[in-house]
Amino acid sequence: MTNRCVIYTRVSTDNQTTENQLIELKRVAELKGLQIVNTFTDEGISGAKGRDKRTGFDNLIKGATKKDFDTILVWSVDSLGRSL
To answer: What is the pTM of this model?
Structure first.
């Protein structure tokens, strides 16, 4: 059985990039034998913002609800939300 994963990346300012997160998380997926089925990104958006402002996060949650994947790879738990 294939373990389907998604990658979620986020940065809070426009002068930052998610590229370093994406490179490392793809490497982790390969090392763990995970199949990447989608990538969600929010750039220039604070983790304190709601789903209505974070389309990548909103799509991540919708996919999780539909069981489109088994695992979420994220650079840091606080990327998911500041209220965690």
So the answer is: 0.86
